[in-house]
Amino acid sequence: MHSSNSSKPTPTPLPTPDLALCARGVDVYYGTIKVLEDVSLDVYPGKVTAIIGPSGCGKSTFIKALNRIGELESNMRIKGEIQFFGQNIYSQRVNLNRLRRQIGMVFQKPNPFPMSIYDNVAYGVRVFSRPSRSVLDELVESALTDAALWNEVKDSLTKSALSLSGGQQQRLCIARSLAIKPRVLLMDEPCSALDPIATLKIEELIRSLQQELTIVIVTHNMQQAARISDRTAFFSTDESQVGRLIETDATAKIFGAASHSRTRDYIEGRFG
Ligand SMILES: Nc1ncnc2c1ncn2[C@@H]1O[C@H](COP(=O)(O)OP(=O)(O)OP(=O)(O)O)[C@@H](O)[C@H]1O
């Protein structure tokens, strides 16, 4: 059993190759400004890990460090170590294309490419390989099925992805990620632009994907974190506005009997 921890996470009981992701003593900076300090977090394979915490505490920053997408977008740099199934992802030997293929990401605002539904899903596959049309057709169908979108779009695959509703666009973006068969999917508030019905569909989808995939999801929605995750990590800022991991544990424990008073206060809506 993985016991709870308070401000300093306890050493992992698993050898790190058995963890999907393992952050140890991670500090993150934008330029010279430190926004996260000393984050150590284990992400268990085949589980959904929710990251919660008040605005600005570094949740998005943290998950963008997990597949090194942050450094593409900004002047982000990190200290400490992050391992992906035992491999240090900040090692110079890491192939970044391969890493980002294995650790996919879905963003807050659906961002389909301005092309057909089919081409959106096929896009990443074509970047990495040259499959025959029939293999590609199968991959597209299977990714759209896994993303619970196939039945809605199977007769309009050549239509522009931009003609879909927001919820459909987000499921399309999930299909696009799934088509290249990642081992981990990072989701940054994937439902924040969606209505309750579309949100429910994405939540059901997250639960069904968990069979084959490890998911890390940032959410502001406490009920959502409680409903869909196995483990929850609560981040918050200290007096100097630097984000920290305050507590991580099984979701039932975090929402039922969190160890740290700041976690309880946040969950009960007393701050943030
Ligand atoms: N590209 C960037 N350059 C400089 N500072 C940034 C950048 N992105 C984020 N920050 C700063 O880093 C801190 C953490 O931001 P981040 O977006 O990670 O927090 P968050 O917890 O995800 O917030 P929210 O819940 O509002 O999305 C904030 O102070 C933010 O202003």
UniProtKB/TrEMBL annotation:
Pfam families per record: ABC_tran (PF00005)
GO biological processes: phosphate ion transmembrane transport
| Swiss-Prot/TrEMBL keywords | ATP-binding, Cell inner membrane, Cell membrane, Membrane, Nucleotide-binding, Phosphate transport, Translocase, Transport
Q: CDD domains, alphabetically?
A: ABC_PstB_phosphate_transporter
Q: Which residues form a coiled coil?
A: none
Query: Which InterPro entries does this one have?
Result: AAA+_ATPase, ABC_transporter-like_ATP-bd, ABC_transporter-like_CS, P-loop_NTPase, PstB-like
Source species, domain of life: Bacteria
Q: Which GO terms describe its cellular component?
A: membrane
ABC transporter domain spans which residues? 14-262
- Which GO molecular function terms does the record list? ATP binding; ATP hydrolysis activity; phosphate transmembrane transporter activity
Q: What is this protein called?
A: Phosphate ABC transporter ATP-binding protein
